[in-house]
Amino acid sequence: MTDSDSGMQVRIFVSAFDSQTVFDLRRYVRKNIPAFIDAHYPQSLPRRRAVIEQPSAIHLGVVESN
Predict the structure, then answer these.
(1) SS3 call for 2
(2) Contact 64, 57 (CB under 8 A)
(3) Is residue 7 part of a domain?
């Protein structure tokens, strides 16, 4: 497992008796592994965090007049 800029990359190796079965198995694993990890190991998934600040009068274009 490796980290990347937008998440993580997981490598899973599978094998089967013939090429069609390997193709189907790879598709199945690629489609279902994120849900499996989310269900069983949610703490392992990357999370994006953002700080949301209240907009100030300057950012809103409001000008105080005296």
Answers:
(1) strand
(2) yes
(3) yes
- Asked if the structure places residue 66 within a domain, the reply is no
- C-alpha 21/C-alpha 52 separation (Å) is 48
Say if residues 45 and 37 touch (Cβ distance below 8 Å).
Answer: yes
**Please, what is the end-to-end C-alpha distance for the chain in angstroms?**
60
Paired with 3 in beta bridges are 8
Tokens 């008796």 — which residue? 17
Residue 65 lies in a domain: no
| pLDDT at position 45 | 78
**Number of domains present in the structure of the chain:** 1
For residue 16, what are the domain limits?
2-60
pTM equals: 0.54
Domain for residue 49, yes or no? yes
